[in-house]
Amino acid sequence: LAKTTQPISMDSYEGQEVNITCSHNNIATNDYITWYQQFPSQGPRFIIQGYKTKVTNEVASLFIPADRKSSTLSLPRVSLSDTAVYYCLVGIYSGAGSYQLTFGKGTKLSVIP
Amino acid sequence: DGGITQSPKYLFRKEGQNVTLSCEQNLNHDAMYWYRQDPGQGLRLIYYSQIVNDFQKGDIAEGYSVSREKKESFPLTVTSAQKNPTAFYLCASSYTGTSDEQFFGPGTRLTVL
Predict the structure, then answer these.
(1) Do the Cβ atoms of B102 and A32 come within 8 Å?
(2) Which residue of B has its CA nearest to A92?
(3) What CA–CA distance (Å, rounded) separates A11 from A26?
(4) Terminal-to-terminal C-alpha distance of chain B
(5) How far is CA A66 from CA A63, A92, B85, in A?
(6) Closest-CA residue to B53 (of B32, B68, B64, B73)
(7) Which residue among B35, B41, B98 sits closest to A98, beta carbon to beta carbon?
(8) pLDDT tens, chain B, 113 aa long
(9) How far is CA A18 from CA A75, A83, B71, in A?
């Protein structure tokens, strides 16, 4: 079972870039990292997924360094509506097309006006 | 309107009773999942299914049972053997398997009295 570690909480002012790091046992090239966002009393929502180096979409970037012992979710110019809990998910390939899934315990991001 | 529905949103049960949580999806996804969420603990995988009539135990399957008789439906039964059943339960689905983006339902909050 993969072990993941995230900061419990972070604060940021509106308009700033926020970087949230997830540390994990070094993962193999077949393994992936996904980040989800969750608001209170709702199900999580997909943000971004990657296997290596850097992935960018319209809302975030994901950086996975060469040693693959961590990954960083980057949110550009956060707004108050980005206040939520952010979870990293590590998918470790277990053969036959399946992955063992381990979620981190979440990082509560508070955006301050 | 495609998505995942979970019912009911809140559920109360007396200690010693079994209870079944409903999860339905109309996204035509092959894979479905059940997670348990406790405060400060992130999401922990209970069971998952990648195809009809087949399912696999996750990290905390003891005291739970599932069935997957139809592609659209993946009910979870919390049995009286589950020692600490009070939690927020989340159902999710993904297109094919465990490397795909997961779409989550709104969750069911179970309280055992």
Answers:
(1) no
(2) B99
(3) 28
(4) 36
(5) 10, 17, 41
(6) B68
(7) B98
(8) 569 999 999 999 999 999 999 999 999 999 999 999 998 788 999 999 999 999 999 999 999 999 999 999 999 999 998 999 999 999 999 998 888 999 999 999 999 98
(9) 5, 11, 39
